[in-house]
Amino acid sequence: MKKTFLPILIFVMPLLSVAQSDTNDGKLQDYKIITGRFEGGTAEQQGAYAQLFGVDETQRKFDLYFHWYNIAHEYSHCLLDFYGKSVGGVEEEMLANKFAVAYWRAAGFADELSTLKSILDGALSAFPNPVPEGRTFADWYKEIWGTEQLMNAAVYGYFQFKSVLIAMDDADDLTQWFANVGIDGFSMPSSCQSKKYPVEAEAAADVLNDLQQFFKASGLEPPTVGLDLTNDPMTHRSQKM
């Protein structure tokens, strides 16, 4: 049966400048990750994700992607901007996915990455490959980036999920990632956390806190990133404060 897709351009939005605010611990936030709960959405919004992820365990798949994996993805946008290494567009999105995969591997989540891979493989089976024959994935998306053609939900959704799968096939570890983007001072912490998180929206704050503690232990001086958990499941972005 042919599937239709609602306009769910949801994965990453540009960093936006707003007034600075305080975090709960009294420190000023440099950035904020904004992410929405599946259960806070309308029936139409939830139906769009059922089309994207499938009708079986839609919310669990949503939470695994957005409130586990994607927190690291969004954090990397903050990190790149903070160190003046942001390149934007296709290149930055692919860098963000390489970062997220490398971080979750280093933190001991190979099984969860394998589960996510199965979910994304299943989701991509619903998308026709939009890349013209004879064109490479990255080059074609660079060509259409910022154009109306990219605003097609199936075209953009294919890009994001395929980018994650490409990153999963990449052998780079975190040390290589930092070297490749030109951020100095990173050293792999001697002890990596391997706690497991419940697959739910409320786990996102714990994920982000542990991620930031990991990079503080790495020798970097990383940005302070806060979290805004909203009831809009269509909003998932990082924001400069």
Can you walk me through this structure?
- This protein has 241 residues and is mostly helical.
- It has one domain (31-240).
- It is 48% helix and 7% strand.
- The protein has eight helices and three strands, in the order βααααααααββ.
- It has helices spanning 43-53, 58-82, 89-106, 110-124, 137-144, 153-168, 174-181, 203-216, and strands at residues 31-36, 225-230, 236-240.
- The protein has a three-stranded mixed β-sheet with strand order 2-1-3, covered by helices on one side.
- The longest helix is centred in the first third of the chain and has 25 residues, at 58-82.
- The termini are far apart.
Q: What count of domains describes the coordinates?
A: 1
The radius of gyration computed from the alpha-carbon positions, rounded to a whole number of angstroms, is 17 Å
Strand order of the largest sheet: 2-1-3
> How would you describe the shape?
globular
SSE series: EHHHHHHHHEE
Largest sheet: 3 strands, mixed
Number of helices: 8
The low-confidence parts are 1-24
Structural class: mainly alpha
Mean pLDDT, to the nearest integer, reads: 88
Number of strands: 3
In percent, how helical is the residue content? 40-55%
β-sheet strand percentage: 5-15%
Termini, distance in Å?
45 Å
Summarize, please.
With about 240 residues, the chain is mainly alpha-helical. It has helices spanning about 45-55, 60-80, 90-105, 110-125, 135-145, 155-170, 175-180, 205-215, and strands at about 30-35, 225-230, 235-240.
Features:
3 strands, mainly alpha, disordered N terminus, 241 residues, single chain, globular
